[in-house]
Amino acid sequence: MEIIFLGTNGWYDTDTGNTISTLINSDKYHIILDAGNGIYKADRYIQDDLPVYLFLSHFHLDHIEGLHVLNKFRFSQGMHIFGQKGTRQVLDTIVNEPFTVPLSKLPFAVEVRELSEGPYKLPFPLECRFLVHASPCMGYRFDLDGKVVAYCPDTGICENAVLLAEDADLLITECSHKPGEQSPDWPHLNPEDAAEIARRAKAKRLALTHFDAGRYTTIQERLDAVKSITNFSDVIVGRDNVVLEI
Ligand SMILES: [Zn+2]
Ligand SMILES: [Zn+2]
């Protein structure tokens, strides 16, 4: 299974990358996590007829602003879009006139489904839990090809993130803040917090993404920040276009 980092910035695009989007290429499904501007690269890595699933965590624009390029894709089995309650209304508003081509006029079929907390079989096993953020943000746990991948984007440290990542082969989470930085009013993670979630969950590997564009202005700053992690060893620094095999 491949994890491809299409966009690894939080907030806005810079020379370090596009806003957040991550692709999981499993044996039977393509799964896209969030639709920041990096999503435009998805068709570089999706070149077969497998079905495509898009999971939206929340509606902050850095996670959905890439939706206006959906009409460049030609997904022969269509696209299944999942998100929390309210997803349909958000999509009907922004993926519509006068902003862009409406969902109903895309060159492939789109199905939108709203999820609550809990387990699902979609057909792959999925678990959804709300994280802690300025706006309700859904985290996901996928069971694909016998591997567990947890995706916990915008969040502070919370028990639900630990539960989603429990014994996961890979935890993909955010790293908006610099080491030691906190923001209780608008929760995000610093590198040590992200590692603490992975450690408590006993995840095997930790991949960091969603580096805040204003704080991390170079890739080297991402690499330096991770050196502050002392309690977890297998950490991958997300960068646009990196392909991770798990
Ligand atoms: Zn964000
Ligand atoms: Zn957010």
Describe this protein's structure.
With 246 residues, the chain is an alpha/beta fold. It is 15% helix and 30% strand. Strands 2, 8, 9, 10, 11, 12, 13 and 14 form an eight-stranded mixed beta sheet that branches. Strands 7-6-5-4-3-1-15 form a seven-stranded mixed beta sheet, with no helix packed on it. Strand 12 (170-175), helix 4 (191-201) and strand 13 (206-212) form a beta-alpha-beta unit. The longest helix has 11 residues, at 191-201. It binds zinc ion (2 copies). One zinc ion binds next to loops.
Please outline what is shown here.
By secondary structure, the protein is an alpha/beta fold. It is 15% helix and 30% strand.
Largest sheet: 8 strands, mixed
Which shape, going by the Cα principal axes?
globular
Low-confidence stretches: none
Q: SS-based structural class?
A: alpha/beta
Attached small molecules: zinc ion
Strand content: 25-35%
**Share of helix among residues?**
10-25%
Mean pLDDT: 97
Number of strands: 15
- What would you report as the Rg, rounded to the nearest angstrom? 17 Å
SSE ordering: EEEEHEEHEEEEEHEHEHEE
Q: Span from first to last CA?
A: 6 Å
Instruction: Tally the helices.
Output: 5
Short key terms for the protein model shown above:
alpha/beta, seven-stranded mixed β-sheet, globular, binds zinc ion
SSE order and pairing:
Elements: E1 2-7, E2 9-10, E3 21-25, E4 30-33, H1 42-45, E5 52-55, E6 79-84, H2 87-94, E7 110-115, E8 118-121, E9 125-130, E10 138-144, E11 147-152, H3 159-164, E12 170-175, H4 191-201, E13 206-212, H5 219-226, E14 235-237, E15 243-245
Parallel strand pairs: 2-13, 4-5, 5-6, 6-7, 11-12, 12-13, 13-14
Antiparallel strand pairs: 1-3, 1-15, 3-4, 8-9, 9-10, 10-11
